[in-house]
Amino acid sequence: MTGFLGSFQHNIDEKGRLSLPASFRREGQDQPFVLVHVFPDALTLYPRSAWAEVEGRLREVLRLQPQARPWVLKVTANACEVVPDKQGRILVPQRLQDAVGIDGATLVVGAIDRIELWDPARFTAATEAPVPEAARFMHQIFG
Questions:
Q1: Domain coordinates of the chain in residue numbers?
Q2: What is the pLDDT of residue 31?
Q3: Fewer Cβ atoms within 10 A, N terminus or C terminus of the chain?
Q4: What is the H or E stretch that residue 118 is in?
Q5: Given 3-state DSSP classes, what are the helix, strand and coil percentages for the chain, each rounded to the nearest 5?
Q6: Are 48 and 31 in contact (CB under 8 A)?
Q7: Taking a C-beta distance cutoff of 8 angstroms, is the pair 128, 21 a contact?
Q8: pLDDT tens-digit profile of 26-71?
């Protein structure tokens, strides 16, 4: 598994279906995904195998920090399993589209072990903002 890389602009159709890029479908190996709204501006799509790790961390947070229960419930109550159809489309519920301002045009972004769904303008604004420690990150990761 090389991870989910790159970005592709696709449209959510009138039935709420979004076509996943072919390379993402191959990387996901036709397994179900879990679609969740955790970060304010994007939806996150986890392959089932990566979601299993997240579930373990959620259980650990609940065990160690019981006060996190309302937040965990909020996250899991809005999560849903999605399975690509034969054309590689997933259904994105309207409530999740509304939560991040996606209306038609959607930027499908590879984020290594997951996929993020963004409104294109919000993605541009988020990634063009200066990152004060970017040079340090760059050298730490790429040498």
A1: 7-142
A2: 79
A3: C
A4: strand 115-118
A5: 45, 25, 30
A6: yes
A7: no
A8: 765 667 999 999 999 999 999 988 899 999 999 999 999 999 999 9
